[in-house]
């Protein structure tokens, strides 16, 4: 049987071999192009910007011009030279680059926020390794001039509080123009950027500076929200900002006991939901959380760090959204948040990226089909009844 099969292969005309080889190459190329390029367009294309409720005095045209379209993602964790295997880096960075670039092209946001842990080894990377990580980040997350990119610091970027140094903070600030207590105002909307790693409350140099900047910014915002006829000597010389209630952007979530109340397909898995969070490690301390609420009275808080989604209410009225990781290394179903925001309202919607398990399934199915096609082409797939007939004839001959 093996001899007849090998002779069949040898007797195939050269043109047929080349034609079959070309068909195989087209099949393999099609699968690769779909799984590594087109699938991101197929999955992200159905995502649409959420609608914001119109004010009674505003037309639809006025709403469209006043709405700020923002994409919020978190925890990209670009692998470093110490713990990052080259193949893992290549795969994860390609996935994130294609997702980000596809989202920019299809959705055309006004601004993109990355909520910390941009790098995985920023807390201990050397100057040369840091420069290489920054170069790769800029390539992956390149963006047009029409889209603004704002990056918030995380514990993996500068280290946990006990690892954080002024040098690491300044290094991050230099690259990303980041300062804790920074206010970004776009279309009358106030965004407050917080270095949550520095909210330790122990009076360290970085913590003191960060808290002082936040207190000063809180004073400006509070003065700006007072009525014009309200007489207050403390606000007389303060620069007036838009009266919009701010949105807090930070890496650590505000204090919550656990993820037990979180729900959704991108929430923490059941075995992790009831694990109690450690203050100043998994979440901010109760004291730091209360400070931020007192200082800013935010209408929305956006955070990362846990790698899983969660929505909680603070003080019974302030929503906090924990944004899951953007990296397939941390979860099978990463996603990002799309926000339509005005000075008085906001609406959020999730946009899921391709499930890695589904991509793997497509590759496995394609591989199995490829093997079957090759065997069938070389007539190595003998039908069962022919095989049984040959066995019977050989038995009779004996």
Care to describe what's here?
The chain is of the alpha/beta class. The protein has one domain: Metallo-dependent phosphatases (Purple Acid Phosphatase, chain A, domain 2, 4-Layer Sandwich). The protein has twelve helices and eleven strands. It has helices at 2-11, 14-44, 60-66, 86-107, 127-140, 155-158, 166-176, 205-224, 270-273, 286-296, 356-377, 384-397; strands spanning 68-73, 111-115, 148-152, 182-186, 189-193, 247-249, 300-303, 310-314, 318-322, 335-341, 346-352. Helix 5 (127-140) links the parallel strand 2 and strand 3 (148-152). Helix 2 (14-44) packs across helix 4 and helix 2 runs antiparallel to helix 11 (356-377). The two termini are 17 Å apart. This is Metallophosphoesterase 1. It holds the Pfam family Metallophos. One of its GO terms (biological process) is GPI anchor biosynthetic process. Its cofactor is Mn(2+).
In short:
This protein has twelve helices and eleven strands. The chain is of the alpha/beta class and 398 residues long.
Task: Break the fold down into its secondary structure elements and pairings.
Layout: H1 2-11, H2 14-44, H3 60-66, E1 68-73, H4 86-107, E2 111-115, H5 127-140, E3 148-152, H6 155-158, H7 166-176, E4 182-186, E5 189-193, H8 205-224, E6 247-249, H9 270-273, H10 286-296, E7 300-303, E8 310-314, E9 318-322, E10 335-341, E11 346-352, H11 356-377, H12 384-397
Parallel strand pairs: 1-2, 2-3, 5-6, 6-7, 7-9
Antiparallel strand pairs: 1-10, 4-5, 8-9, 10-11
Helix pairs in contact: 2-4, 2-11
């Amino acid at each position: 049987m093996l001899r007849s099969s090998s002779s069949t292969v040898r007797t195939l005309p050269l043109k047929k071999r080349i034609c079959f080889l070309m068909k195989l190459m087209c099949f393999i190329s099609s699968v690769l192009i779909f799984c590594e390029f087109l699938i991101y367009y197929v999955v992200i294309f159905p995502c649409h910007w959420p609608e914001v409720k119109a004010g009674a005095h505003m037309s639809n045209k006025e709403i469209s011009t006043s709405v700020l379209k923002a994409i919020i993602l978190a925890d990209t964790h670009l692998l470093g030279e110490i713990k990052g295997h080259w193949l893992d880096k290549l795969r994860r960075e390609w996935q994130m680059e294609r997702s980000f670039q596809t989202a920019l092209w299809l959705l055309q946001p006004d601004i993109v926020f990355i909520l910390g842990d941009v790098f995985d080894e920023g807390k201990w990377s050397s100057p040369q390794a840091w420069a290489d990580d920054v170069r790769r980040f800029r390539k992956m997350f390149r963006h047009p001039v029409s889209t603004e990119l704002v990056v918030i610091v995380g514990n993996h970027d500068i280290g946990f509080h006990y690892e954080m140094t002024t040098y690491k903070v300044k290094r991050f600030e230099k690259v990303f123009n980041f300062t804790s207590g920074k206010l970004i105002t776009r279309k009358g909307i106030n965004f407050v950027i917080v270095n949550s790693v520095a909210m330790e409350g122990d009076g360290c140099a970085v913590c003191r500076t960060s808290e002082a900047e936040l207190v000063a910014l809180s004073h400006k915002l509070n003065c700006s929200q007072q009525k014009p006829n309200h007489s207050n000597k403390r606000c007389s010389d303060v620069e007036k900002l838009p009266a919009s209630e701010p949105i807090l952007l930070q890496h650590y979530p505000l204090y919550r006991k656990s993820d037990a109340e979180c729900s959704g397909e991108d929430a923490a898995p059941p075995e992790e939901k009831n694990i109690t969070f450690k203050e100043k490690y998994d979440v901010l301390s109760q004291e730091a959380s209360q400070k931020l609420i007192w200082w800013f009275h935010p209408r929305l808080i956006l955070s990362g760090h846990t790698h899983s989604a969660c929505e909680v209410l603070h003080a019974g009225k302030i929503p906090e959204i924990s944004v899951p990781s953007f990296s397939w290394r941390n979860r099978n179903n990463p996603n990002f948040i799309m926000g339509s925001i005005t000075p008085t309202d906001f609406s959020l919607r999730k946009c899921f990226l391709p499930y890695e398990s589904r991509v793997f399934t497509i590759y496995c199915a394609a591989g199995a089909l490829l093997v079957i096609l090759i065997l069938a082409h070389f007539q190595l797939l003998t039908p069962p009844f022919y095989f049984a007939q040959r066995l019977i004839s050989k038995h009779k001959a004996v």
